[in-house]
Amino acid sequence: MARDAEQTKRRLLDAAIAEFAAYGIAGARVDRIAEQAKANKAMIYSYFGNKEQLFDAAFDLLVNGTVNEVPIDADDLPGYAGRLFDRFWQSPEVVRLSAWHRLERGADGPLHERVAQAHRDKIAAIEAAQADGRLPGHLPAASLLSVVLVISTMWTPGNPDAASTKFVTTKKARRETVTEAVRQIVRT
To answer: Alpha carbon 73 to chain centroid distance?
Structure first.
């Protein structure tokens, strides 16, 4: 019984991720999520509360997956950017849900707590590498992290601007550009 409940929750989360990535919070429909998950709509409310809380659960799943699967390596920021690019290429929903989160929850509002903690940890790692001379200090650590994050989302399928840059057409060329851009930024 518990196993079936966990499977149903996971199907609902997977369907919710796809729905929210496509339509955002306001445009998402619980009927479509339930239908896609082959679950009763009432299960969404039973497991997650409401549509907003379902979005939060879906967003949490993607954030935690990204933070756990792609840890920062302050000694290899180009490699880190490449691994982030790979994650965003394989899971474009991460970029899309992040964009919807900012759009619908407010870009100036508080960061999602897991995102905020991950940023604090990454900034601390970059600061330590700058203090040791392993990374240049020409940019504050928080700014350097922001640049790396933005560059790593370039040309990923979840980024709506990706289609406008057709001159870099292959995934390999795009990834190489991402890592080389970060390599140039952190050159001493």
So the answer is: 17
